[in-house]
Amino acid sequence: MERKILHVDVNSAFLSWTAVDMLKQGAEIDIRTIPAIIGGDEEKRKGIVLAKSIPAKKYGIQTAEPIYFAKQKCPNLQIYQSNFRVYRQYSNALYDLLHEYTDKIEQFSIDECFLDITDFIPKGKTDIQIAYEIHTRVKQELGFTVNIGVAPNKLLAKMASDFEKPDKVHTLYINEISTKMWQLPVSELLMVGKRSLPKLELLGIKTIGELAHTPKELLENQFGKFGKMIWEYANRN
């Protein structure tokens, strides 16, 4: 039986959870709708951007960049400090909801996880229907949004959840790899980072599809075990 895996990823988790908590405390503004970030201490000019709103993203603000540079891009940027007590509260609420669907949950981080629902799909339902049900319930019951990737393994599920954000459900089944994944830049493939990307481009490999069609032996000669691994990732089936 083909496995049914979901990857659930909270959209801009720290900022979303802060926004939900502030609204519950009586805030009049949803900080997800204004240029806002979660970061360090603005007065001390320390810290980096931990999470950003969609309006902040439109100013070119990047996660992990210094707050000082973020403020230069958007002078009216609103900055809120992190609160891990709040984050843990909403993370736990999410996992409580997800445990209603399966006990096979692998936590990847505080705001993302994998669900194996292979043996837990009710008769008459499909994996994609379960994904949309979770997607809707999280929004309605918990007040924040998630992206969900649906696939037969963890790699493809994670790739799917990253396709388009926020608040989306995407599939990446085996028969969709060539149309949905192979045309993506090779930098989008899990484990391909800043060090390996220039070397791949020197080989003329710019897309995941080009990587998938490169002889495995060539990649092993160039990168060793890492080359074999990324070739297998690009051809995941």
Layout of strands and helices, then pairs:
Blueprint: E1 5-10, H1 13-24, E2 36-39, E3 51-52, H2 54-57, H3 67-73, E4 78-81, H4 84-98, E5 105-109, E6 112-116, H5 127-142, E7 146-151, H6 154-161, E8 169-171, H7 177-181, H8 196-202, H9 208-212, H10 216-223, H11 225-234
Parallel strand pairs: 2-4, 7-8
Antiparallel strand pairs: 1-6, 1-7, 2-3, 5-6
Report on the structure:
This protein has 237 residues and is of the alpha/beta class. Helix content is 41%, strand content 15%. It has eleven helices and eight strands. Strands 5-6-1-7-8 form a five-stranded mixed sheet. A hairpin with a 2-residue loop joins strand 5 (105-109) and strand 6 (112-116). Helix 10 packs antiparallel against helix 11. The chain starts with a strand and ends with a helix. The model has no long low-confidence stretch (mean pLDDT 94).
Keywords:
11 helices; 237 residues; alpha/beta; 3-stranded mixed beta sheet; 41% helix; flat
Shape descriptor:
flat
Number of helices: 11
Question: What ranges have pLDDT less than 50 throughout 5 or more consecutive residues?
Answer: none
Intertermini distance:
14 Å
Rg from Cα: 20 Å
Approximate helicity band: 40-55%
Topology pattern, helix = H, strand = E:
EHEEHHEHEEHEHEHHHHH
Average predicted local confidence, pLDDT: 94
How many strand elements? 8
Order of strands in the sheet with the most strands?
5-6-1-7-8
* Percent strand: 5-15%
